[in-house]
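We now fix the convention by which a protein and its fold are recorded. The integers have meaning only within a learned vocabulary of local backbone shapes. A record is reproduced here so that you can trace the correspondence yourselves:
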Amino acid sequence: MATVYVREQGAVVRRQGERIVVTKDGREIMDLPLIHLDQLALMGNVQLTTPAVALLVQNGVDVVFFSRYGKFRGRIVHTGSKFARLRHAQLRKMSDKQAALAIARAVVAGKLSNQRTILGRQIRDMPFSPHRSRVEQAMREIGELTLKAKAAPSLDVLRGWEGRAGACYFGALRMLLAEEWGFRGRAYYPPPDPINALLSFGYSLLLKDVLAAVQLVGLDPYLGFFHAIEYGRPSLALDMMEEFRPTIVDSLVLYLANNEILTRADFVWTRERKRPVRLSDKALELFIHRYEERINVRVFHPGVRQKTTYRRCFELQVRQLAKVILGKKASYRPMTIK
């Protein structure tokens, strides 16, 4: 999939024949042949003309909207679902408490397993120290909580184990980052430090791609099994994101921070209560580039028994869930790393 981000504030996305062009102040800054375009991400004050919308929708191009600094806003959906049978089965599966709980357990177990693996990779060459001991302790606790999650008797208990594991995990990430980053644990609404700003932006990018996979397969993205159903919340997409958060976003943030590819100088402290820190334009562009590189890395997927991109893995995992929902597969197997 070719994804193009339009970040130029005040730009206009227009139709020109069977092509999409992006202009600003009458000057063309992008020319996008549709044959090379699968997803168009618009960030901030970018206008989209009606003829351009019609052409993009007609050609099945996914159009996604973000705030200027990366908060996911929404997307243009082509039509209502053509997958009535699948969505009916999804509703029935949600109504079966034990079946729904089994899927939720697998979702959480996959996430926790990958969190533990990411921590183990980070300390592989770390000399013995109090920080290493803290990380190892967190790994042990996450391992124990993974076993508890697999046997959780209810969604409320499962959410409790997942929350405890998250506290252990992000507490360990603090040990893996230089003190100057000011990271004290996962915090959002709003992110108070650069690492949390990177995590939030990364999760927004991941959400857009997982949500696209859910819609492609035909499931209802708002009817999840683990995340509570709330107005406007794509609960199923959030469910399917869980196993990929550590492997795609968290590992990327650690890599960029610990290798000084991004530094504190790449962030802006705004003194605004709603957004105290944000990425600079340069950092935003770099992070998008590295994220796209990351999801196009080829890895082995057990379902197809061959290497494919992480982006394709999103879809394969959703298709696997669809088989479970339709009764064609006994249980959902999250994609875990070693």
